[in-house]
Amino acid sequence: MAKFMFVVPPFFGHISPTLSVGGSLLAKGHEVIWVGIQELSASHIPAGGKFIVPHEQLAPYQEAIQQILKMQDDGPKLSGVETLKLALEGTYIPFCRFMVPGVSHVADKFQPDVIVSDCITFAGAITAYLKDIPCVTTTPVPPDVTGDAMQAPKIFEWQQQLIRNLQHEFGIYTDEYVIHSREMNIVFTSREFAGSTDPLPHMRFVGPVKGRPNDTPFDWERLSKVTSPKVFVSLGTLLVDIRKEFFAKLVEAFADEPVTIVAATDPAIFPQWPDNFIVQGFVPQSALMPQMDAVICHGGFNTVNDAFMNGLPMLITPIAYDHFHTASLIENAGCGIKLRYKRLRVPDLKAAMREVLENPAYRQAAQRVRDTFISAGGNDKAVELLETFAQRATNIISIQQ
Amino acid sequence: MDAITTQKKLNSEEIFAILKGFITEVIGEEFVEDMDISRESSFTRDLEMDSIEIVSFSEKVKAHFGEHIDFTGWLSGMDLDQLINLTLDHIIKYIESCQSSK
Predict the structure, then answer these.
(1) Residues 46-85, chain A: which have Cβ within 8 Å of B?
(2) ipTM of the predicted structure?
(3) Is the model more confident about A242 or about A120?
(4) Where are the transmembrane segments (chain A) (predicted)?
Protein backbone atom coordinates (compact mmCIF):
# COMPACT_ATOMS: atom_id res chain seq x y z
CA MET A 1 0.00 0.00 0.00
CA ALA A 2 1.21 3.48 -0.77
CA LYS A 3 0.95 6.94 0.79
CA PHE A 4 -0.45 9.73 -1.38
CA MET A 5 -0.37 13.39 -0.48
CA PHE A 6 -2.58 15.68 -2.57
CA VAL A 7 -1.70 19.39 -2.60
CA VAL A 8 -4.66 21.59 -3.58
CA PRO A 9 -5.63 25.25 -4.02
CA PRO A 10 -8.64 26.89 -2.31
CA PHE A 11 -10.79 26.49 -5.44
CA PHE A 12 -13.36 23.73 -5.34
CA GLY A 13 -13.29 22.97 -9.06
CA HIS A 14 -9.66 21.93 -8.62
CA ILE A 15 -10.16 20.10 -5.31
CA SER A 16 -13.23 18.14 -6.37
CA PRO A 17 -11.62 15.60 -8.77
CA THR A 18 -8.82 14.93 -6.25
CA LEU A 19 -11.44 14.10 -3.58
CA SER A 20 -13.01 11.62 -5.97
CA VAL A 21 -9.71 9.94 -6.92
CA GLY A 22 -8.50 10.11 -3.30
CA GLY A 23 -11.70 8.39 -2.20
CA SER A 24 -11.07 5.57 -4.69
CA LEU A 25 -7.46 5.21 -3.46
CA LEU A 26 -8.66 5.06 0.17
CA ALA A 27 -11.22 2.40 -0.77
CA LYS A 28 -8.33 0.27 -2.07
CA GLY A 29 -6.50 0.59 1.24
CA HIS A 30 -3.98 3.33 0.46
CA GLU A 31 -3.22 6.18 2.84
CA VAL A 32 -4.36 9.56 1.52
CA ILE A 33 -4.08 13.09 2.87
CA TRP A 34 -4.76 16.50 1.37
CA VAL A 35 -2.84 19.68 2.12
CA GLY A 36 -4.61 22.97 1.44
CA ILE A 37 -4.45 26.65 2.23
CA GLN A 38 -8.01 26.87 3.55
CA GLU A 39 -10.19 24.48 5.56
CA LEU A 40 -12.65 22.32 3.64
CA SER A 41 -15.99 21.22 5.07
CA ALA A 42 -15.58 17.75 6.64
CA SER A 43 -18.57 16.50 4.64
CA HIS A 44 -16.47 16.66 1.45
CA ILE A 45 -13.59 14.54 2.73
CA PRO A 46 -13.76 10.84 1.84
CA ALA A 47 -13.89 8.41 4.78
CA GLY A 48 -10.43 7.63 6.10
CA GLY A 49 -8.84 10.65 4.45
CA LYS A 50 -7.49 13.71 6.21
CA PHE A 51 -7.48 17.32 5.04
CA ILE A 52 -4.64 19.27 6.61
CA VAL A 53 -4.24 23.03 6.68
CA PRO A 54 -0.80 23.82 8.10
CA HIS A 55 -2.08 26.82 10.07
CA GLU A 56 1.15 27.42 11.97
CA GLN A 57 3.25 27.83 8.80
CA LEU A 58 0.50 29.79 7.01
CA ALA A 59 -0.13 32.18 9.93
CA PRO A 60 2.22 34.97 8.76
CA TYR A 61 0.40 35.08 5.40
CA GLN A 62 -3.20 34.95 6.58
CA GLU A 63 -4.02 38.54 5.70
CA ALA A 64 -2.46 38.28 2.24
CA ILE A 65 -4.29 34.99 1.60
CA GLN A 66 -7.65 36.53 2.45
CA GLN A 67 -6.90 39.51 0.23
CA ILE A 68 -6.04 37.29 -2.74
CA LEU A 69 -9.17 35.21 -2.23
CA LYS A 70 -11.25 38.36 -2.24
CA MET A 71 -9.63 39.53 -5.49
CA GLN A 72 -10.97 36.42 -7.26
CA ASP A 73 -14.48 37.95 -7.13
CA ASP A 74 -13.29 40.57 -9.61
CA GLY A 75 -12.91 37.89 -12.31
CA PRO A 76 -16.04 38.79 -14.32
CA LYS A 77 -14.95 42.46 -14.42
CA LEU A 78 -11.47 41.76 -15.73
CA SER A 79 -10.26 41.49 -19.30
CA GLY A 80 -8.43 38.40 -20.53
CA VAL A 81 -4.98 39.87 -20.02
CA GLU A 82 -5.84 41.15 -16.56
CA THR A 83 -7.15 37.71 -15.64
CA LEU A 84 -3.88 36.17 -16.75
CA LYS A 85 -1.99 38.59 -14.54
CA LEU A 86 -4.28 38.05 -11.56
CA ALA A 87 -4.03 34.28 -11.95
CA LEU A 88 -0.32 33.72 -12.31
CA GLU A 89 1.32 36.74 -10.72
CA GLY A 90 -1.42 37.65 -8.26
CA THR A 91 -2.60 34.21 -7.12
CA TYR A 92 -0.68 31.04 -8.04
CA ILE A 93 2.80 32.36 -7.34
CA PRO A 94 2.06 34.02 -3.97
CA PHE A 95 0.03 30.96 -2.89
CA CYS A 96 3.04 28.81 -3.75
CA ARG A 97 5.31 30.99 -1.59
CA PHE A 98 2.87 30.83 1.32
CA MET A 99 2.31 27.09 1.04
CA VAL A 100 5.79 25.64 0.58
CA PRO A 101 6.80 25.81 4.30
CA GLY A 102 3.57 24.11 5.43
CA VAL A 103 3.52 21.54 2.63
CA SER A 104 7.14 20.75 3.40
CA HIS A 105 6.36 20.33 7.10
CA VAL A 106 3.46 17.97 6.42
CA ALA A 107 5.58 15.99 3.92
CA ASP A 108 8.27 15.48 6.58
CA LYS A 109 5.73 14.07 9.00
CA PHE A 110 3.65 12.00 6.56
CA GLN A 111 6.53 10.75 4.36
CA PRO A 112 4.42 10.34 1.20
CA ASP A 113 5.45 7.91 -1.53
CA VAL A 114 3.91 10.30 -4.06
CA ILE A 115 2.96 13.97 -3.97
CA VAL A 116 -0.02 14.67 -6.21
CA SER A 117 0.11 18.38 -6.94
CA ASP A 118 -2.72 20.30 -8.58
CA CYS A 119 -1.67 22.14 -11.74
CA ILE A 120 -2.04 25.65 -10.28
CA THR A 121 -0.71 24.67 -6.85
CA PHE A 122 3.02 24.80 -7.53
CA ALA A 123 3.89 24.28 -3.84
CA GLY A 124 3.32 20.53 -4.14
CA ALA A 125 5.62 20.06 -7.11
CA ILE A 126 8.28 22.42 -5.72
CA THR A 127 8.30 20.55 -2.39
CA ALA A 128 8.49 17.25 -4.22
CA TYR A 129 11.48 18.49 -6.22
CA LEU A 130 13.27 19.83 -3.14
CA LYS A 131 12.74 16.61 -1.18
CA ASP A 132 13.19 14.25 -4.12
CA ILE A 133 9.70 12.81 -3.73
CA PRO A 134 8.04 11.40 -6.88
CA CYS A 135 5.38 13.81 -8.13
CA VAL A 136 2.25 13.63 -10.26
CA THR A 137 0.28 16.68 -11.47
CA THR A 138 -3.52 16.77 -11.71
CA THR A 139 -5.24 19.04 -14.24
CA PRO A 140 -9.01 19.53 -13.97
CA VAL A 141 -9.46 21.73 -17.05
CA PRO A 142 -8.47 20.85 -20.61
CA PRO A 143 -5.08 22.45 -21.11
CA ASP A 144 -5.10 25.40 -23.46
CA VAL A 145 -3.11 23.97 -26.32
CA THR A 146 -4.03 26.41 -29.05
CA GLY A 147 -3.63 29.77 -27.35
CA ASP A 148 -5.44 32.78 -28.74
CA ALA A 149 -4.82 36.04 -30.56
CA MET A 150 -3.73 37.75 -27.35
CA GLN A 151 -0.84 35.36 -26.84
CA ALA A 152 2.35 37.10 -27.63
CA PRO A 153 6.07 36.42 -27.27
CA LYS A 154 6.45 39.02 -24.53
CA ILE A 155 3.60 37.51 -22.54
CA PHE A 156 5.09 34.05 -22.92
CA GLU A 157 8.45 35.40 -21.79
CA TRP A 158 6.76 37.09 -18.81
CA GLN A 159 5.27 33.75 -17.76
CA GLN A 160 8.57 31.94 -18.11
CA GLN A 161 10.42 34.63 -16.18
CA LEU A 162 7.95 34.59 -13.29
CA ILE A 163 8.27 30.82 -12.99
CA ARG A 164 12.06 30.88 -13.22
CA ASN A 165 12.20 33.57 -10.52
CA LEU A 166 9.88 31.56 -8.30
CA GLN A 167 12.08 28.49 -8.67
CA HIS A 168 15.16 30.60 -7.88
CA GLU A 169 13.51 31.74 -4.64
CA PHE A 170 13.57 28.11 -3.55
CA GLY A 171 17.13 27.59 -4.71
CA ILE A 172 16.10 25.67 -7.82
CA TYR A 173 18.43 26.73 -10.63
CA THR A 174 17.66 24.08 -13.21
CA ASP A 175 16.52 25.23 -16.65
CA GLU A 176 13.59 22.85 -16.38
CA TYR A 177 10.25 23.95 -15.07
CA VAL A 178 9.54 21.91 -11.98
CA ILE A 179 6.16 23.45 -11.08
CA HIS A 180 4.52 20.60 -12.99
CA SER A 181 5.45 16.95 -13.01
CA ARG A 182 7.41 15.77 -16.04
CA GLU A 183 6.62 12.19 -15.11
CA MET A 184 2.85 12.18 -15.10
CA ASN A 185 0.07 14.71 -15.55
CA ILE A 186 -3.43 13.33 -15.04
CA VAL A 187 -6.02 15.36 -16.96
CA PHE A 188 -9.70 14.98 -16.05
CA THR A 189 -11.09 15.10 -19.55
CA SER A 190 -10.61 13.10 -22.75
CA ARG A 191 -7.78 13.72 -25.17
CA GLU A 192 -10.31 14.04 -27.98
CA PHE A 193 -12.32 16.73 -26.20
CA ALA A 194 -9.21 18.65 -25.16
CA GLY A 195 -8.34 18.84 -28.85
CA SER A 196 -4.92 17.46 -28.07
CA THR A 197 -3.84 15.59 -31.17
CA ASP A 198 -0.28 14.82 -30.20
CA PRO A 199 0.08 15.05 -26.40
CA LEU A 200 3.39 14.51 -24.63
CA PRO A 201 3.60 10.94 -23.30
CA HIS A 202 3.31 11.99 -19.63
CA MET A 203 -0.10 13.62 -20.27
CA ARG A 204 -2.67 11.02 -19.24
CA PHE A 205 -6.29 11.81 -20.07
CA VAL A 206 -8.61 9.86 -17.74
CA GLY A 207 -11.90 11.69 -18.36
CA PRO A 208 -14.13 13.03 -15.60
CA VAL A 209 -14.13 11.23 -12.27
CA LYS A 210 -17.20 10.43 -10.18
CA GLY A 211 -18.98 13.27 -8.42
CA ARG A 212 -19.71 13.34 -4.73
CA PRO A 213 -22.85 11.56 -3.56
CA ASN A 214 -25.58 14.18 -3.30
CA ASP A 215 -28.94 13.30 -1.75
CA THR A 216 -30.31 16.86 -1.62
CA PRO A 217 -34.14 16.69 -1.68
CA PHE A 218 -35.91 17.85 -4.82
CA ASP A 219 -39.51 18.25 -5.98
CA TRP A 220 -39.37 15.23 -8.30
CA GLU A 221 -43.14 15.10 -8.51
CA ARG A 222 -43.36 18.59 -9.97
CA LEU A 223 -40.66 17.69 -12.48
CA SER A 224 -42.46 14.49 -13.48
CA LYS A 225 -45.54 16.49 -14.51
CA VAL A 226 -43.57 18.69 -16.89
CA THR A 227 -44.26 18.06 -20.57
CA SER A 228 -42.10 20.74 -22.24
CA PRO A 229 -38.32 20.29 -22.85
CA LYS A 230 -36.36 20.56 -19.60
CA VAL A 231 -33.30 22.75 -19.41
CA PHE A 232 -30.92 22.72 -16.47
CA VAL A 233 -29.20 25.99 -15.57
CA SER A 234 -26.25 26.42 -13.26
CA LEU A 235 -23.59 29.05 -12.72
CA GLY A 236 -21.59 26.83 -10.41
CA THR A 237 -20.55 27.83 -6.92
CA LEU A 238 -18.67 31.06 -7.65
CA LEU A 239 -19.81 34.24 -9.40
CA VAL A 240 -22.33 35.19 -6.75
CA ASP A 241 -22.42 38.88 -7.72
CA ILE A 242 -23.79 38.48 -11.21
CA ARG A 243 -26.44 35.86 -10.50
CA LYS A 244 -29.31 38.30 -10.39
CA GLU A 245 -28.40 39.89 -13.71
CA PHE A 246 -27.89 36.52 -15.38
CA PHE A 247 -31.16 35.02 -14.22
CA ALA A 248 -33.05 38.23 -15.05
CA LYS A 249 -32.02 37.68 -18.68
CA LEU A 250 -33.12 34.04 -18.53
CA VAL A 251 -36.48 35.04 -17.12
CA GLU A 252 -36.88 37.63 -19.86
CA ALA A 253 -36.02 35.05 -22.51
CA PHE A 254 -37.91 32.00 -21.26
CA ALA A 255 -40.81 33.12 -19.05
CA ASP A 256 -43.95 31.34 -20.29
CA GLU A 257 -42.07 29.86 -23.26
CA PRO A 258 -42.57 26.15 -24.06
CA VAL A 259 -39.53 25.07 -21.98
CA THR A 260 -39.07 24.27 -18.31
CA ILE A 261 -36.05 25.81 -16.65
CA VAL A 262 -34.57 23.96 -13.68
CA ALA A 263 -32.25 26.49 -12.07
CA ALA A 264 -29.71 25.89 -9.33
CA THR A 265 -29.63 29.24 -7.60
CA ASP A 266 -30.98 30.87 -4.47
CA PRO A 267 -34.70 31.52 -5.24
CA ALA A 268 -34.61 34.61 -2.99
CA ILE A 269 -32.87 36.73 -5.66
CA PHE A 270 -36.35 37.47 -7.09
CA PRO A 271 -39.66 37.84 -5.22
CA GLN A 272 -41.34 35.75 -7.88
CA TRP A 273 -40.39 33.33 -10.66
CA PRO A 274 -42.40 32.41 -13.77
CA ASP A 275 -44.42 29.18 -13.51
CA ASN A 276 -42.10 27.32 -15.88
CA PHE A 277 -39.05 27.91 -13.64
CA ILE A 278 -38.19 25.36 -10.93
CA VAL A 279 -35.63 27.05 -8.70
CA GLN A 280 -33.68 25.64 -5.78
CA GLY A 281 -30.43 26.76 -4.11
CA PHE A 282 -28.75 23.36 -3.96
CA VAL A 283 -29.89 20.57 -6.23
CA PRO A 284 -29.05 16.88 -6.71
CA GLN A 285 -27.34 17.75 -9.99
CA SER A 286 -26.19 14.28 -11.09
CA ALA A 287 -29.64 12.80 -10.42
CA LEU A 288 -31.35 15.64 -12.28
CA MET A 289 -29.20 15.56 -15.41
CA PRO A 290 -30.54 12.30 -16.90
CA GLN A 291 -34.00 13.90 -16.95
CA MET A 292 -32.90 17.02 -18.81
CA ASP A 293 -32.94 17.86 -22.53
CA ALA A 294 -30.28 20.59 -22.54
CA VAL A 295 -28.04 22.59 -20.21
CA ILE A 296 -27.26 26.28 -19.89
CA CYS A 297 -24.02 26.98 -18.05
CA HIS A 298 -21.00 29.29 -17.98
CA GLY A 299 -18.41 26.65 -18.79
CA GLY A 300 -17.43 25.56 -15.28
CA PHE A 301 -16.17 22.03 -15.41
CA ASN A 302 -18.42 20.32 -12.92
CA THR A 303 -21.60 21.12 -14.84
CA VAL A 304 -20.01 20.67 -18.27
CA ASN A 305 -18.83 17.16 -17.34
CA ASP A 306 -22.22 16.21 -15.91
CA ALA A 307 -23.90 17.43 -19.08
CA PHE A 308 -21.51 15.44 -21.28
CA MET A 309 -21.89 12.27 -19.21
CA ASN A 310 -25.59 12.50 -20.07
CA GLY A 311 -24.97 13.39 -23.69
CA LEU A 312 -26.75 16.74 -23.39
CA PRO A 313 -26.32 19.70 -25.74
CA MET A 314 -25.24 22.95 -24.13
CA LEU A 315 -25.67 26.66 -24.37
CA ILE A 316 -22.59 28.19 -22.81
CA THR A 317 -22.25 31.77 -21.64
CA PRO A 318 -18.58 32.12 -20.63
CA ILE A 319 -18.03 34.79 -17.98
CA ALA A 320 -14.44 34.70 -16.77
CA TYR A 321 -11.24 32.68 -16.30
CA ASP A 322 -10.98 29.47 -18.28
CA HIS A 323 -14.67 29.48 -19.26
CA PHE A 324 -13.87 30.95 -22.67
CA HIS A 325 -11.49 28.17 -23.54
CA THR A 326 -13.91 25.48 -22.38
CA ALA A 327 -16.78 27.14 -24.25
CA SER A 328 -14.74 27.19 -27.46
CA LEU A 329 -13.95 23.49 -27.07
CA ILE A 330 -17.65 22.71 -26.63
CA GLU A 331 -18.58 24.78 -29.67
CA ASN A 332 -15.75 23.36 -31.80
CA ALA A 333 -16.86 19.84 -30.90
CA GLY A 334 -20.34 20.76 -32.16
CA CYS A 335 -21.96 20.07 -28.77
CA GLY A 336 -23.44 23.48 -28.17
CA ILE A 337 -23.56 27.19 -28.84
CA LYS A 338 -21.43 29.79 -27.12
CA LEU A 339 -22.97 33.15 -26.27
CA ARG A 340 -20.65 35.60 -24.65
CA TYR A 341 -22.16 36.68 -21.35
CA LYS A 342 -21.06 40.29 -21.69
CA ARG A 343 -22.89 40.63 -25.00
CA LEU A 344 -25.92 38.50 -24.23
CA ARG A 345 -29.00 39.46 -26.22
CA VAL A 346 -32.33 37.93 -25.27
CA PRO A 347 -33.35 37.13 -28.89
CA ASP A 348 -29.98 35.35 -29.43
CA LEU A 349 -30.51 33.39 -26.23
CA LYS A 350 -33.93 32.24 -27.40
CA ALA A 351 -32.74 31.37 -30.91
CA ALA A 352 -29.72 29.44 -29.59
CA MET A 353 -31.90 27.51 -27.15
CA ARG A 354 -34.30 26.54 -29.90
CA GLU A 355 -31.39 25.45 -32.09
CA VAL A 356 -29.75 23.15 -29.50
CA LEU A 357 -33.11 21.62 -28.57
CA GLU A 358 -34.37 21.08 -32.10
CA ASN A 359 -31.26 20.25 -34.09
CA PRO A 360 -30.22 16.69 -33.14
CA ALA A 361 -26.62 17.28 -34.31
CA TYR A 362 -25.72 18.92 -30.98
CA ARG A 363 -27.02 16.03 -28.92
CA GLN A 364 -25.27 13.50 -31.16
CA ALA A 365 -21.97 15.37 -30.84
CA ALA A 366 -22.38 15.51 -27.04
CA GLN A 367 -23.00 11.76 -27.01
CA ARG A 368 -19.77 11.22 -28.94
CA VAL A 369 -17.89 13.22 -26.30
CA ARG A 370 -19.58 11.13 -23.61
CA ASP A 371 -18.23 7.99 -25.29
CA THR A 372 -14.67 9.37 -25.23
CA PHE A 373 -15.11 10.32 -21.55
CA ILE A 374 -16.27 6.84 -20.62
CA SER A 375 -13.52 5.08 -22.54
CA ALA A 376 -10.90 7.35 -20.93
CA GLY A 377 -11.42 5.27 -17.79
CA GLY A 378 -12.35 7.73 -15.02
CA ASN A 379 -11.62 6.78 -11.41
CA ASP A 380 -10.39 3.27 -12.19
CA LYS A 381 -7.87 4.56 -14.72
CA ALA A 382 -6.69 7.35 -12.40
CA VAL A 383 -6.19 4.85 -9.56
CA GLU A 384 -4.37 2.41 -11.84
CA LEU A 385 -2.04 5.17 -13.06
CA LEU A 386 -1.29 6.37 -9.53
CA GLU A 387 -0.74 2.86 -8.17
CA THR A 388 1.63 1.98 -11.00
CA PHE A 389 3.45 5.27 -10.52
CA ALA A 390 3.83 4.72 -6.76
CA GLN A 391 4.99 1.15 -7.33
CA ARG A 392 7.61 2.23 -9.82
CA ALA A 393 8.73 5.08 -7.56
CA THR A 394 9.13 2.75 -4.57
CA ASN A 395 11.09 0.26 -6.68
CA ILE A 396 13.49 2.96 -7.82
CA ILE A 397 14.03 4.13 -4.25
CA SER A 398 14.65 0.60 -2.98
CA ILE A 399 17.18 -0.02 -5.76
CA GLN A 400 18.96 3.20 -4.83
CA GLN A 401 19.02 2.22 -1.17
CA MET B 1 -16.09 44.75 -47.56
CA ASP B 2 -14.16 46.81 -50.07
CA ALA B 3 -10.60 47.73 -49.36
CA ILE B 4 -10.69 51.49 -49.50
CA THR B 5 -7.18 52.61 -48.86
CA THR B 6 -7.43 56.23 -47.87
CA GLN B 7 -4.82 58.26 -49.66
CA LYS B 8 -5.48 61.49 -47.81
CA LYS B 9 -3.85 61.66 -44.40
CA LEU B 10 -6.52 61.73 -41.73
CA ASN B 11 -6.28 63.70 -38.54
CA SER B 12 -6.76 61.99 -35.21
CA GLU B 13 -10.38 63.12 -34.80
CA GLU B 14 -11.26 61.55 -38.12
CA ILE B 15 -9.46 58.33 -37.22
CA PHE B 16 -11.26 58.25 -33.88
CA ALA B 17 -14.65 58.58 -35.60
CA ILE B 18 -13.80 55.74 -37.98
CA LEU B 19 -12.58 53.47 -35.18
CA LYS B 20 -15.69 54.20 -33.18
CA GLY B 21 -17.75 53.05 -36.17
CA PHE B 22 -15.74 49.81 -36.38
CA ILE B 23 -16.21 49.15 -32.67
CA THR B 24 -19.95 49.62 -33.05
CA GLU B 25 -19.99 47.18 -35.95
CA VAL B 26 -17.91 44.61 -34.06
CA ILE B 27 -19.64 44.59 -30.69
CA GLY B 28 -23.14 45.73 -31.63
CA GLU B 29 -24.95 49.03 -31.34
CA GLU B 30 -27.03 48.14 -28.29
CA PHE B 31 -23.89 47.43 -26.23
CA VAL B 32 -21.99 50.47 -27.46
CA GLU B 33 -24.82 52.77 -26.34
CA ASP B 34 -24.01 52.17 -22.67
CA MET B 35 -20.27 52.44 -23.17
CA ASP B 36 -19.49 56.10 -23.74
CA ILE B 37 -16.49 55.47 -25.96
CA SER B 38 -13.75 58.07 -25.67
CA ARG B 39 -10.12 58.28 -26.73
CA GLU B 40 -9.22 57.25 -23.20
CA SER B 41 -11.35 54.09 -23.34
CA SER B 42 -9.26 51.07 -22.49
CA PHE B 43 -9.34 48.53 -25.26
CA THR B 44 -9.48 45.40 -23.16
CA ARG B 45 -11.17 46.68 -20.03
CA ASP B 46 -13.76 49.27 -21.12
CA LEU B 47 -14.55 47.82 -24.53
CA GLU B 48 -14.08 44.25 -23.25
CA MET B 49 -13.10 42.94 -26.64
CA ASP B 50 -12.33 39.26 -26.75
CA SER B 51 -9.91 37.72 -29.20
CA ILE B 52 -12.52 37.10 -31.90
CA GLU B 53 -13.68 40.71 -31.70
CA ILE B 54 -10.11 41.98 -31.82
CA VAL B 55 -9.41 39.98 -34.97
CA SER B 56 -12.56 41.32 -36.60
CA PHE B 57 -11.71 44.90 -35.56
CA SER B 58 -8.21 44.43 -36.89
CA GLU B 59 -9.51 43.28 -40.28
CA LYS B 60 -11.66 46.39 -40.54
CA VAL B 61 -8.69 48.60 -39.71
CA LYS B 62 -6.63 46.87 -42.40
CA ALA B 63 -9.36 47.09 -45.01
CA HIS B 64 -9.81 50.77 -44.36
CA PHE B 65 -6.33 52.11 -43.66
CA GLY B 66 -4.26 49.73 -45.72
CA GLU B 67 -2.67 46.30 -45.58
CA HIS B 68 0.55 47.68 -44.12
CA ILE B 69 -1.26 48.30 -40.82
CA ASP B 70 -0.61 45.08 -38.97
CA PHE B 71 -2.78 45.70 -35.94
CA THR B 72 -2.69 42.18 -34.44
CA GLY B 73 1.06 42.00 -35.11
CA TRP B 74 1.47 45.30 -33.27
CA LEU B 75 -0.58 43.97 -30.34
CA SER B 76 1.34 40.72 -30.14
CA GLY B 77 4.57 42.66 -29.65
CA MET B 78 3.23 44.17 -26.42
CA ASP B 79 3.83 43.02 -22.91
CA LEU B 80 1.06 42.40 -20.42
CA ASP B 81 0.94 45.86 -18.89
CA GLN B 82 0.98 47.56 -22.28
CA LEU B 83 -2.02 45.48 -23.30
CA ILE B 84 -3.86 46.19 -20.07
CA ASN B 85 -3.23 49.94 -20.43
CA LEU B 86 -3.91 50.12 -24.17
CA THR B 87 -6.37 52.92 -25.01
CA LEU B 88 -8.04 53.99 -28.23
CA ASP B 89 -5.70 56.96 -28.26
CA HIS B 90 -2.69 54.61 -28.55
CA ILE B 91 -4.34 52.96 -31.54
CA ILE B 92 -5.04 56.33 -33.17
CA LYS B 93 -1.37 57.32 -32.73
CA TYR B 94 -0.28 53.98 -34.17
CA ILE B 95 -2.43 54.48 -37.27
CA GLU B 96 -1.15 58.07 -37.61
CA SER B 97 2.43 56.85 -37.46
CA CYS B 98 1.72 54.22 -40.12
CA GLN B 99 0.20 56.89 -42.36
CA SER B 100 3.17 59.21 -42.04
CA SER B 101 5.72 56.45 -42.63
CA LYS B 102 4.05 55.47 -45.87
Answers:
(1) 78-82, 84-85
(2) 0.74
(3) A120
(4) none
Total domain count for chain A?
2
Chain B residues near residue A86 by CB distance under 8 angstroms: none
Contact B55 A342 (CB under 8 A): no
CB atoms within 10 A of CB A41: 7
Cα A317 to Cα A150, A324, B34: the distances in Å are 20, 8, 20
What is residue A237's predicted lDDT score, i.e. its pLDDT? 67
Task: Quote the pTM value.
Answer: 0.88
Domain of residue A52, CATH code: 3.40.50.2000
Q: How many residues does chain B have?
A: 102
Q: Where are the domains of chain B?
A: 12-100
Q: In A170-269, which ranges are continuous DSSP H helix?
A: 191-194, 220-224, 243-254
- Which chain B residues have a beta carbon less than 8 Å from that of A151? 76
Report DSSP state, residue A135.
E
Residue A195 — pLDDT band, cuts 50, 70, 90? Answer: confident
| Contact between chains at B80 and A84 (C-beta distance less than 8 A) | yes
Query: How far is residue A98's CA from residue A289's CA, in Å, rounded to a whole number?
Result: 39
Give the model's pLDDT for residue A25: 97
Q: What is B12-100's CATH topology?
A: 1.10.1200
